[in-house]
Amino acid sequence: xxxxxxxxxxxxxxxxxxxxxxxxxxxxxxxxxxxxxxxxxxxxxxxxxxxxxxxxxxxxxxxxxxxxxxxxxxxxxxxxxxxxxxxxxxxxxxxxxxxxxxxxxxxxxxxxxxxxxxxxxxxxxxxxxxxxxxxxxxxxxxxxxxxxxxxxxxxxxxxxxxxxxxxxxxxxxxxxxxxxxxxxxxxxxxxxxxxxxxxxxxxxxxxxxxxxxxxxxxxxxxxxxxxxxxxxxxxxxxxxxxxxxxxxxxxxxxxxxxxxxxxxxxxxxxxxxxxxxxxxxxxxxxxxxxxxxxxxxxxxxxxxxxxxxxxxxxxxxxxxxxxxxxxxxxxxxxxxxxxxxxxxxxxxxxxxxxxxxxxxxxxxxxxxxxxxxxxxxxxxxxxxxxxxxxxxxxxxxxxxxxxxxxxxxxxxxxxxxxxxxxxxxxxxxxxxxxxxxxxxxxxxxxxxxxxxxxxxxxxxxxxxxxxxxxxxxxxxxxxxxxxxxxxxxxxxxxxxxxxxxxxxxxxxxxxxxxxxxxxxxxxxxxxxxxxxxxxxxxxxxxxxxxxxxxxxxxxxxxxxxxxxxxxxxxxxxxxxxxxxxxxxxxxxxxxxxxxxxxxxxxxxxxxxxxxxxxxxxxxxxxxxxxxxxxxxxxxxxxxxxxxxxxxxxxxxxxxxxxxxxxxxxxxxxxxxxxxxxxxxxxxxxxxxxxxxxxxxxxxxxxxxxxxxxxxxxxxxxxxxxxxxx
Length: 725
Hints:
One of its GO terms (cellular component) is cytosol. Its EC number is 2.7.7.8. It catalyses: RNA(n+1) + phosphate = RNA(n) + a ribonucleoside 5'-diphosphate. The protein contains 14 helices and 31 strands. It is of the alpha+beta class. The protein has an eight-stranded antiparallel beta sheet, sandwiched between helices. The chain has a six-stranded mixed beta sheet with strand order 1-2-3-4-6-5. Strands 11-12-13-17-16 form a five-stranded mixed beta sheet. Helix 2 runs parallel beside helix 4 and helix 13 (578-587) packs antiparallel against helix 14 (609-623). The longest helix has 29 residues, at 200-228. It is elongated, with a radius of gyration of 35 Å.
């Protein structure tokens, strides 16, 4: 079988060409393509089983994005020197693609589908995550796997007031917002990103810009599919349908489901009532019902619940817990619930609760984030934990799953917008432990994280809150926007979206849009209601703690950062690190030095304030240039008959001559000083011949009227240490 590559190209703008090629690589997959921009090349393959597994009643889609380190000419830094488990960045990219692809498949399609995406050539300026979904969709488009539509995904960033599609890595560093958006030709499907307090209208504008760019990419995929000759999608085995059984389920359970749903009960009461009704339904089928009938009846029962609750919300404007559509559940929050962490908070919203801690560390605690294109350190870390007891379940405790990584990333990106800049010396780790969950624990993490950061004394200027929203629509034009959705409401909606931000604007967004033909007017209304919910929560947060604490906790580590001239870095370090090691040993501190441009950043970390102050003074002394006329606090290091040698700056000594100690004439040094005494002196000059510093104590004293005339000062002979005039 000869290679027969087929390709199509399109222009992203500014002459940036993207090409999609199939027929050359991985030809035994059901569909495979390579997508290329510049030197960035992604290989996408998709394979689907011909038949669903026996008893399969859900759609098993798996999406894995992986970066090959060889793509950037690098060897992995792991012990085994090979690519292993996916990094958080790869997991997040996989989730972006998965969430966009999943709605494309028919609801009755239960065959296993595996989408594998590999970065096989890297470009330092091209962001591959913005092209991964394009590659996956193109691979599906040229296959016979049954998808309903073609999609694509782009990044839109605001750079100096301009909306840029798929900006370069250098451009993105200057962006005021960064959103990744997926869409079909007609409908938006998924949005995720972060912003430095953008407005709702700016977000809507970004969606419109993205959709126009996506339509160009979809057209290229359609042309590629036509060139390949794909005209039809494969047939597949559909689940068994029993309309008679479905009618029985509706007749028996519809009114009872409605009664339970509108009772306004708690999560567990409602769940127990639904389970009892389901058991009554199965019993009502009689002994003649087969296991297959019972399983199918349970499915129809879940479908019925979905329909009844949606219609109840749309027609009666009643929610499962009795709230108004725009009402946030009761809020309760506190700071410092734990005595030992450097910062902590407990945030409770209804039946969702987050216990969050903040830990302050040194530069040595920074997290290395590694991808094929680059390796960099980050000073702000957020981890999100979702133990099974939070939902009253028993599950195996394993490492964080993709959900935990995704939710933690959304919270991290939101809070990061208010974090201080590089001048802040601490590495900050936020950990959110979800103790209860019934709707949007990720938004609880944002709120609890903001409270804990302020409790820790991290100089964040504003609170960030978040709220999870739902949207339910119907063909007759009715729609309902739900504020602060419950867990049971989460899967009901046609658009589930989370919006975080300050009082001034949006900091983070995550949306999954499932409805066809969602108008921008409805989108604007949903975002406006989300803003009201966010502001309501922010008001409560400011009542709890209005601003960050002025200092870190007494038991928190102390840290200070000094900016020094580049030429002094060597002096602080010393030969073979001798000086910096001595400072650390004598003061009990940890010191790191980093060269940044023409300056050096000296970060000093200590558990004790006294040690920090001593180390800071030491370093300042090393880099200080003695000034004639300046006053110093000196330490007596040696006593001679002609005066005392004092250290007025670290490693800088001068002679305090006997004639400069007092206006009163001293006959000898006996009893005047002892080694280690502190004495305030003034630098009065520099000996032009020896270069030694001349210091005076009496210059800081008021001159008496009967003061003796100044005597000529002897000079110490450098060769033998003797005095001479």
